[in-house]
Amino acid sequence: MDGGCLDNKVYRHNNDDDLSIAETFTVPELSITGLASDGKSLYSCDTAKGKIYKHRLDDKLSVEAAYDTPGKNPCGLFFDGKKSLERGQQNQPHLPP
């Protein structure tokens, strides 16, 4: 999946040569600047609100939980197989609660 912070959409891509779009989700209340998944949930970060959101993998990507970011200006997320991490503008890693 990838997030479009300008159009407030999240795109799920097919695993084909073109990475064609399989599904589009609109998340108008969020300004997504990073996405990561642990295989069970999708996590997004929102720089404007300073939040990390845990989403259900349903047809609306419903927000299940919200966390304050431990650092300023979150701009990316990744999952290392154990813990989800966010990166701030200073490129410093932070673990959400």
Lay out the secondary structure.
Blueprint: E1 2-4, E2 9-13, E3 21-26, E4 32-37, E5 42-46, E6 51-55, E7 63-68, E8 74-79, E9 84-88, E10 93-94
Antiparallel strand pairs: 1-2, 2-3, 4-5, 5-6, 6-7, 8-9, 9-10
Please explain how this structure is put together.
This protein has strands spanning 2-4, 9-13, 21-26, 32-37, 42-46, 51-55, 63-68, 74-79, 84-88, 93-94. The protein has 97 residues and is mainly beta. The protein has a domain at 30-94: Thrombin, subunit H (Beta Barrel), CATH 2.40.10.500. A four-stranded antiparallel sheet has the order 4-5-6-7, with no helix packed on it. The radius of gyration is 13 Å and the shape is globular. The two termini are 23 Å apart. The model is unreliable at 1-5 and 88-95 (pLDDT under 50).
Give structural attributes.
97 residues; mainly beta; Thrombin, subunit H; 3-stranded antiparallel beta sheet; 10 strands; disordered N terminus
Which structural class should the secondary elements be placed in? Answer: mainly beta
Taking strands numbered 1, 2, ... along the chain, how are they ordered across the largest sheet? 4-5-6-7
Q: Major beta sheet, specifics?
A: 4 strands, antiparallel
Q: How many whole angstroms does the radius of gyration measure?
A: 13 Å
| Count of discrete alpha- or pi-helical segments spanning 4 or more residues | 0
C-alpha termini separation: 23 Å
- List segments where confidence is low: pLDDT < 50 over at least 5 consecutive residues: 1-5, 88-95
Element-level helix/strand string: EEEEEEEEEE
- Average pLDDT metric: 76
The general outline is: globular
Percent helix: under 10%
Number of strands: 10
Determine the strand fraction and express it as a percent band: over 45%
CATH class of the domain at 30-94: Mainly Beta
Q: Supply the CATH architecture of the domain at 30-94.
A: Beta Barrel
CATH topology of the domain at 30-94: Thrombin, subunit H
